[in-house]
Amino acid sequence: MKKFNKKGLGVLYGVLLFSFSTYALLDTFVIPHPMQSVEINAIAETTQTSNIKESVEAAIKEKLGNGTVTDTESTDKKVIAETEETGSSAVNDTETVEGGTVIGEYSDSKTSITLKRYRAYDSDIYVADITVSDASALKTALANNTYGRNITDTTSDIADENNAVLAINGDYYGARQSGYVIRNSKLYRNTSGDRDALVIQKNGEFKFVSESETSAEQLLQAGALQVFSFGPVLLNNSEISVGENEEVGMAMASNPRTAVGYLGNNHYVFVVSDGRTSESAGLSLYELASFMKEIGVVDAYNLDGGGSSTMVFKGEIINNPTTNGHSNQERAVSDIIYIGGES
């Protein structure tokens, strides 16, 4: 009987351990967790703090005496692999940029878009040349219009829900627990990821900042319209900012890529390249930066790539997304950058 009880307890323990581990993995990577923006949390915390401040201070003094108490925040040192997937292909070093081929156009009273396809570095590269009357036309959207962890949808579906004429995937903020998130002048996350972030300011200009040297609140107060935390910076004032062997996280040298660029005075480009297929090898970061410099981009920033890289124009997927080795299959992402149509 004792042997049976011990065996039964062992089986029960194993089942409970497996169930807990499974739930923990699902909770981390699958189960959606809507979250509040920083502003909403700040309001709630301020109200709560005003009610309990005196009792907390009394408890601290009782435990530690009347000495100075310094609040410290724990720093997350966990290494999180970036969402660009590992892949490898031989890259043809021959660069063929030239003028590209026009494959689509759109215009209204506030926006003009010319879509071109280029062939360079043995890859198809899609460039949307965008001119807007005001930088506010450069919008962002979250999957299911909800900020949170494990809340994702395809770029094409998010674009459709927001009546986007043109859209590309964003920085996939939900794949990381740190990195500033400001979208359409609203602060969602103020935890530094110690990256170089892209700030699109209300005046339309690009600005690159180190998250370790400035706070998200300061960026918002200074007029940040959008802030993306992925990187790296590709071009800064027309100068290439990446080395020939530089890469993102665990990604290999040739990948599908997504980037956004600034040419000046409300003039932008969205760039998406194919990769990991027999038709397109994919680009290194240096090749992406070189290509964007060749077409006249002044400032450029790398966004999430790999299976996330998707461009949608007038409801159609323009490039060939590859997810888990499958062509023409979009990866669900957290967010997009888009241009809306005229209402």
Question: Topology of this structure?
Answer:
Elements lengths: L1 H28 L3 E2 L3 H27 L36 E7 L3 E10 L2 E10 L5 E5 L5 E2 L5 H7 L2 E6 L11 E3 L2 E4 L6 E6 L4 E5 L5 H6 L2 E5 L4 E4 L2 E2 L16 E6 L4 E7 L11 H10 L4 E4 L8 E3 L2 E2 L4 E2 L2 E2 L7 E6 L3
Antiparallel strand pairs: 1-6, 2-3, 3-4, 4-16, 5-22, 7-18, 7-22, 8-9, 10-11, 10-12, 13-14, 13-17, 15-16, 15-17, 18-19, 20-21
What would you say this structure looks like, in words?
The chain is of the alpha+beta class and 343 residues long. The chain folds into two domains: 2-31; 101-340, no CATH class. The chain contains five helices and 22 strands. It has helices at residues 2-29, 38-64, 155-161, 216-221, 285-294, and strands at 33-34, 101-107, 111-120, 123-132, 138-142, 148-149, 164-169, 181-183, 186-189, 196-201, 206-210, 224-228, 233-236, 239-240, 257-262, 267-273, 299-302, 311-313, 316-317, 322-323, 326-327, 335-340. The chain has an eight-stranded antiparallel beta sheet with strand order 2-3-4-16-15-17-13-14, with helices on one face. It has a five-stranded antiparallel beta sheet with strand order 5-22-7-18-19, covered by helices on one side. Strands 11-10-12 form a three-stranded antiparallel beta sheet. The longest helix has 28 residues, at 2-29. It is globular. It comes from Lachnoanaerobaculum saburreum F0468. Pfam families: NAGPA. This is Periplasmic protein, PF09992 family. Residues 162-339 form the Phosphodiester glycosidase domain.
